[in-house]
Design a protein that fits this description.
The chain folds into two domains: 115 residues, 6 Propeller (Neuraminidase); 87 residues, Immunoglobulin-like. Helices cover 0% and strands 52% of the residues. It contains no helices and 18 strands. The strands form five sheets. It has a four-stranded antiparallel β-sheet, with no helix packed on it. The chain has a four-stranded antiparallel β-sheet with strand order 5-6-7-8, with no helix packed on it. A four-stranded antiparallel β-sheet has the order 15-14-17-18, with no helix packed on it. The protein is globular, with a radius of gyration of 17 Å.
Length: 228
């Protein structure tokens, strides 16, 4: 398996080699809910990033410089050739703000983080609208900053009314690693700093994590990438 991301309900996972399928998994038991067999690529892909604004996801990048935008049925909506990344293998993708970031290896040697795709709605350089959220205008979980992170990151969110609220960090297997907020909060904007440690105070390993905000007004998630 390769790239994974969480859409707020299920995990999407891209297989490398063999069947080249995309799996939708239930958490936390890992049961396969559905598979997408008709993927547009013939070479295995790695990265997978869910776009909450459009309910679509992006995949691509291993042994090819092609990136694809798909709907939840696996239909290809768009694609782009990254001509300047011919020697780059993308190992993971993370969408934040108006940009898609990739964890890449250049010629199987130097590791780096690259901005690989600008704009959610079109992969050709036209910006999407990051304000088109599938949430109430007053309930939102903002992108963490910085992200990717090596140390501290700030997570901000807004509540339209006072309510019992939780803000938790999960690993990609759906296991809770850190509770940042658990209690009643007033309406308004709130910010919390996560230091990259779990509930026992140990630094988490490099990888993809999910930040989940839950309150009486709804639920929202954001993807975090930890680099050690």
């Amino acid at each position: 398996m390769a790239g994974m991301d969480f859409d707020g309900v299920h995990t999407w996972q891209v297989a490398v080699g063999g069947d080249n399928m995309i799996y939708r998994l239930d958490l936390p038991n890992g049961a396969v809910i559905d598979t997408i067999n008709s993927v547009p690529w013939v070479t295995s892909q790695r990265g997978c990033s869910w776009i909450p604004y459009t309910s679509q996801f992006l995949s691509g990048g291993w042994n090819t410089n092609l990136l694809y935008k798909l709907d939840s049925l696996g239909n290809q909506l768009d694609s782009a050739v990254m001509a300047s990344m011919a020697d780059v293998d993308i190992y993971d993708l993370i969408a934040e703000g108006e940009y898609l970031w990739g964890l890449v290896t250049i010629q199987d040697a130097a590791n780096s983080i690259r901005k690989v795709w600008m704009g959610y709605l079109r992969p050709t350089g036209v910006n999407g609208n990051p304000n088109e959220l599938n949430e109430s205008a007053d309930f939102s979980l903002q992108p963490a900053y910085p992200n990717p992170l090596q140390g501290n990151t700030t997570i901000s969110f807004r509540l339209p009314r006072a309510s019992l609220t939780s803000l938790d960090i999960y690993n990609i297997m759906g296991q809770k690693v850190k509770t940042l907020v658990a209690g009643n909060l007033e309406a308004g904007r709130h910010s919390v700093i996560w230091n990259g440690c779990d509930n026992s105070g140990r630094k988490v390993a490099s990888g993809v994590f999910i930040c989940r905000l839950t309150s009486g007004s709804g639920q929202a998630t954001r993807k975090l990438l930890v680099i050690r």
